[in-house]
């Protein structure tokens, strides 16, 4: 089936999968050097940004709930090693402990990488599942992206301003038991691929996270209820075949609802997503563009 001219115009494969191979892909020996360069740039940016970084903690929960969410720790993913998923739980416990109780006061900025830090064996992290170019590999600290995903979902349901968030350029797994819309996840690489939010409000927010028996559980709190509640949804979901490859695209929209009246106060486009599938989609229409 062919698609419309409007769909063709709107479709743009992600630059990451359409650009020529990077220098480090042509010469893998240069990859460690490139990583160190990126990390140095980030450290310089941290030092010169002028941001006030969130660092204070409070054990007692703030009174107002903004958003609560939990995600299943172990999922059956085609082609994924379940051993790595079990190891991921160890990594999530360590990373969640670094974030739990953190306060983001008015004017402060939260950086996932600054708070969690580098995930090394010396700190107790083990091999978990990491995604690279759409493929699952074992890597120290693998799986902590699940914590970033949960935080980002809660942040989208709050007045916090998302300053930085990077997504995967590939969609590696079919929607087997997916709870959240596709396209709201995060990619984390210490320290130069980050999740960063800023508190531009007059309220203090608090992040509570912990690993339960079956779920990673999160609770975003505030010292006073914000004026709006939020509804986040995916729109215009499509699977598109382009030059023999299948891409997935959608839009993530956020609706602001007045807490007192229940009326829609505003609606905003959060993100346009497009990623290359690394699996054969089943039971969905694929349009040729």
TrEMBL record:
Pfam assignment, any one: VanW
PANTHER family: EXPORTED PROTEIN, EXPORTED PROTEIN-RELATED
Protein name per its UniProtKB record: VanW family protein
């Amino acid at each position: 089936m062919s698609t419309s001219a409007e769909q063709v115009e709107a479709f743009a494969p992600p630059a990451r999968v359409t650009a020529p191979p990077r220098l480090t892909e042509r010469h893998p020996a240069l990859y460690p050097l490139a990583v160190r360069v990126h990390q140095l740039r980030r450290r310089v940016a941290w030092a010169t940004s002028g941001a006030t970084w969130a660092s204070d903690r409070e054990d007692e929960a703030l009174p107002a709930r903004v958003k609560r969410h939990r995600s299943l720790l172990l999922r059956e993913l085609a082609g994924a090693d379940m051993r790595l998923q079990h190891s991921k739980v160890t990594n999530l416990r360590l990373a969640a402990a670094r974030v739990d109780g953190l306060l983001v006061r008015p004017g402060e900025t939260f950086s996932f990488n600054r708070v969690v830090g580098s995930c090394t064996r010396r700190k107790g992290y083990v091999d978990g599942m990491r995604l690279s170019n759409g493929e699952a590999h074992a890597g120290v600290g693998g799986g902590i992206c699940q914590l970033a995903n949960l935080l980002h979902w809660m942040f989208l349901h709050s007045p916090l301003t998302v300053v930085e968030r990077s997504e995967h350029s590939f969609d590696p797994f079919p929607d087997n038991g997916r709870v959240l819309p596709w396209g709201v996840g995060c990619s984390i690489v210490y320290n130069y691929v980050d999740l960063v939010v800023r508190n531009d409000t007059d309220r203090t927010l608090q992040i509570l996270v912990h690993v339960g028996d079956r779920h990673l559980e999160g609770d975003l709190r505030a010292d006073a209820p914000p004026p709006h509640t939020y509804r986040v949804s995916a729109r215009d979901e499509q699977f598109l075949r382009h030059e023999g490859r299948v891409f997935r695209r959608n839009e993530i929209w956020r609706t602001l609802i007045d807490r007192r009246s229940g009326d829609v106060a505003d609606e905003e486009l959060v993100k346009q997503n497009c990623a290359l599938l690394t699996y054969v989609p089943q039971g969905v229409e694929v349009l040729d563009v």
